[in-house]
Amino acid sequence: MTKTISLVISEAALEKIPVNIIDHPSVTNHARKLGKRPSEILLDRSYHHAAMLSSKLEFAWKRGRPDLVHFALIEALSTPLFFNNLLQVYVSTISNQVVYIGENLRIPKSYPRFEGLMIDLFKKYHIREGKNATLLKLQNNVSLDSLINDTIKPLKVIGFSRTGVQSTPENIISTHISKDSCQCAFIIGGFPSGHFTENTKRLCDYFYSIGNYSLEAHVVIARILYECEKVLSVK
Amino acid sequence: MTKTISLVISEAALEKIPVNIIDHPSVTNHARKLGKRPSEILLDRSYHHAAMLSSKLEFAWKRGRPDLVHFALIEALSTPLFFNNLLQVYVSTISNQVVYIGENLRIPKSYPRFEGLMIDLFKKYHIREGKNATLLKLQNNVSLDSLINDTIKPLKVIGFSRTGVQSTPENIISTHISKDSCQCAFIIGGFPSGHFTENTKRLCDYFYSIGNYSLEAHVVIARILYECEKVLSVK
């Protein structure tokens, strides 16, 4: 079986400090503590809330949550589906950057180490293990549309959102995934609040909500991938 | 329905700096960065590896991973089962301390905030919301045995470990949980490597392994609780 299921953590709240808040004290202080230049560090609402407010950053409510992206990645990369090379994972950020996750990546569980790795990636664009294997790659100016239609080219695109059609992970996966056909791309939001843009919605062939609560991305990922493993008999 | 399912994150790698490494440079430097006294901060292998090695800390391979406890808690506390007050969560640490999780706790997703909350808990032993509601409580000298037999008093204790009987979350939950009877305590290890002590194993009525891989605690938690929600029709 080839690696055919794709997970795209979309409109993800992972980015470097935007240039217009680079001089804000909350940013310069935080950079100093990390021993980095302000231009290198990740936008993080935990530290840069004041800067984000005062600069009236566009779509501020969806931005600056690298911790959510960390959880979503940890969840996906801890599954037997990923260990068996049946899952390809991408992060498509709110500023149209794409992070490609290599199959050998052991994502750091410690947040400061993850943060350090992302800072390194945003600087070097390519993190290798030894001479050949790619652990992480970053590209600028790749829209979600292009990632899906030019790179992943799945048979079906399935989005998850509170505004989708009510269903269950079990029903969704048994409807769309089988051992003979599992070339699906799952689109899951990597932001703290708000909804997908109309553009993201338009890219989805199906759009589902699972359960009555607004679930965290990592919970949706855990449930969907677990149901995929059942259908594909991954152990 | 009363809150009848219990999850105990056991032998958890969450503790304050042990007194015999309090003067080690890796500890004092880290405490300074956090703006805390060395005696107040959490043991964390990411920072205190050298101190843990040089002091020959007992069971060092199982200790100093508050990040794993953070993930396990985030996973459990993000489920509709918890939102519906059907799940009680406990952390039973490797040094016989117990953290009781209140039903209104919104656990910080940002690791530095979680770390700050835990440091506060280890200092004050009780974190309240307003005047009454308990968010977190800490007790010293409570063994896992006493937590289970004197506090939780479940009908069944079900442990999860690589060395258990091979099964699936679906089979385990449909065997042991029903709408009429769900007073189970699940025991899941909150440590990075190694196995449960003989004492923990003895407390389990059933002992299962799910899948062929050594799964992270948060993955086991996600799958078990999701299957509980199915059996209990929680949405």
Q: Helical segment tally of chain A? A: 9
Quaternary state, please? homodimer
Count of folded domains of chain A: 2
Terminal-residue CA separation of chain A = 14 Å
CATH structural class of the largest domain in chain A: Alpha Beta
Strand content of chain A: 15-25%
Specify which chain pair forms the largest interface. A-B, 32 and 32 residues
Give the overall average pLDDT of chain A: 94
Percentage of residues assigned to helices of chain A: 25-40%
How large, in whole angstroms, is the Cα Rg of chain A? 18 Å
Largest sheet properties of chain A? 8 strands, mixed
CATH superfamily of the largest domain in chain A: SPOUT methyltransferase, trefoil knot domain
SSE run of chain A: EHHHHEEHEEHEHEHEH
Write down the CATH topology of the largest domain in chain A.
Alpha/beta knot
Low-confidence stretches of chain A: none
Shape descriptor of chain A: globular
| Second CATH tier, the architecture of the largest domain in chain A | 3-Layer(aba) Sandwich
Structural class of chain A: alpha/beta
Q: Strand order, biggest sheet of chain A?
A: 4-5-3-2-1-7-6-8
Structure, explained:
2 copies of one chain form a homodimer. The first copy, chain A, is 37% helix and 23% strand. Chain A has 235 residues and is an alpha/beta fold. Chain A has 2 domains: 5-13 and 64-231, Alpha/beta knot (3-Layer(aba) Sandwich), CATH 3.40.1280.10; 19-61, no CATH class. In chain A, strand 6 (156-167), helix 7 and strand 7 form a beta-alpha-beta unit. In chain A, helix 3 packs parallel to helix 9 and helix 7 crosses helix 9 (217-231). The model of chain A has no long low-confidence stretch (mean pLDDT 94). Chains A and B meet through helix 3, helix 5 and helix 9 of A and helix 3, helix 5 and helix 9 of B.
